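User: what does the whole thing look like in 3D?
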Amino acid sequence: MRRLLAIAFLWFLLVSLAGPASADTFTCLACHSAMKGKIRTDGNVLIDVNVDSEKYESSVHGGFDCIICHKQFQSNPHEATKIGNVSQNIAALAGKLSPKAKVDPVALAACTECHSEVYKDWQESVHGNNIIDKRQADGADCLDCHGSPHYITPKNTLSSMVNRKNVVKTCGDCHENEHLAKKYNLGSSIIERYYESFHGKKYALGHPTVPTCVSCHKSHAIKKWDDPASPVAWENRTVTCGNCHPGATRKFVAAITHKPYGKDNPIPYYFQKGLILLLFGVFAFIVSHVFLEVFSEIRDKVFRKEKEEHHE
Amino acid sequence: MNKNLPAEYQRFNVIERIQHVILLVTFLLLAFTGWALKYPEVEKSRWLVNLWGGARTAGIIHRTAGITMLLDFIWHVIYMGYMLGTGKMKLNPITTVIPLPKDIFDMVKNVSYFIGLSKTKPQFGRFTYAHKFDYWAVFWGMGIIGLSGLFLTFPVQAAYIFPSWSVNWIWEVLFVMHSDEALLAIVFILFFHFYNEHLKFDKFPMGMSWITGKISVEDMKHEHPLEYELEFGDKGADK
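Assistant: Here's the predicted 3D structure for the full assembly of 551 residues, as C-alpha cells:
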C-alpha cells in the first residue's frame, strides 16, 4: 500500500512538473508574455512583441518550442539572426515569402514542415501565387485566414477564424476591403452578394450545412474563378453544385453568380420595382379601406345610436 | 322571429370548412417559418428560426406546409369544378364569388358611406367585394408565391423547364416574387382579413361560421340581404 502511494506521488510529481511548454519556450515567454506594445524593426516593420502565454498554451501549437518555427532564433534572438541554422528547403521557401513576411519569413515557411500538403496547395493557389510569383505584400498567407499561429484553435471551436461560423467574415476581411477589391478586381461587395443569395440567407440564420465560401471555392487550393482548375469554373460547376444538388445541369448552375441586383441585371431589378409598386398599391387600398371603415363604425356606434335614443 | 324561417343558414359545407382550416394552418406555418429568411440580417430572425428548431428544420416545415397548401388549393379548384360541372352549385350573380361590375359600385357606395357621402350601405349578396378580394387574393398568391416556391423547392428540376435565355435572371425573379408577394399576403391577411373577420364590432372576436359553417338568419339578413332575399324572400315577406 505504501509503495503504491509512493508511486502515485512520484507520478503526480512528474506530471505536474512537465508543463505544457518546454524550458526554452518558458524562457522566451518570460519576457514576451510580459512585454506590451509594438516595436519597429530595422526593416521598418511594426511588430507586436507580446505573446499571450495562456492563449498560446491552450492553442493547438501550445506544446511547441518557439524555435520549432522561429528557427533563426536558435541561440540569442537579439543578436543578428543566423540563417545557417535553417534547412535549405525552408530557407528557399522563406526567400519566396519575403515580400509578405517582413519579420520572420522562416517561421511562415516552417508551417510546411508539418502541413506540407495544404502548404503545397496554397503555393499553387491564387493566394500563394500572388505572394510568391507576383511578389505582392498584401496577398493572403496562412496567418491571414487562420490568425496568429500562437493562438490557433481547432476548426470546430468558435474562436477559430476558419470555423464555419466565422469563415465568411474571415474571407470578407480582405474581399470586402475596398482597396483590395479595387486592386485585384474582386467584384463589388461579394460578401454582401453572398448574403443576398439563398445560401447566404440560410447561413446567416445558422443553417448547419448550407455552403460557405470555401464549400464551392475551396480553401487552400483556391483558384481564380476563370482558372480551369477552379471548382467554380464553368466547366466544373455541374460537378461542384452537384455535390449538394444531384443532377445539376449547366442551366441550373447559372443560378449562383454573386451578381448584384442592380441595374446591370435589369430584369429582376425592374421586376422588383414593379412588385413593390403593386405592394404599396394594395397596402394603400387596404389600409385606407380599413381605417375608413373603423371611422364609420365608431361614428355609427357613437353618433347614430345617440340619434336613435334621442328619437325614442 | 318568423316561424317559416330557420334560425340558422348553412353557409359553408364541411369540405369548404376543411379546406379553409388547412389553408389557415399552412398559411400561419409558412408565415412564421419563412419570415426569418426575408430578414436574415436581423438579430431576432435567428431567434424566430430557432423557435422552429433551427434553419434546417424550419425549412423542412416550410416546404411541407407549402406543398400541403398547394395540394389544398388544387383540391379546392377540382372541387369547385366538380360542384359547378355537376350542377350542385349554380352560377347566380347574387351568390357567386366571381367579381362582377356590381362589386365596383358596391365598393364606391360603401366607401361613400364610410365618409358620409351616402346615407345607406350597399346591399351585398353572398360575398361582398371584400370577400371576393380575399378569395381571389389566394389565387394570386398561389400562382405567384406557390409556383415560385415550388420552383425554389426543386431548383434542379425547375432548371430543366426554364429556357436557357432566362437562367441568368430567373432565380432572382423567383426569389423576389416569393418574398415580396409573401410579405404582401401576410400584411393583407393581418390587416384586411383580420379587421373584416375578427375586429369589427359585430364580428369580434370572430364569426363562428368557419367552424360551424352556419350563420344566423338574423345576421344573414343584415350582412347578406340579397342572398337572404334569394333564399327566404317569399317566407320573409310573410312577416
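In plain terms: Chain A is about 50% helix and 0% strand. The first helix of chain A runs from residue 2 to 17.
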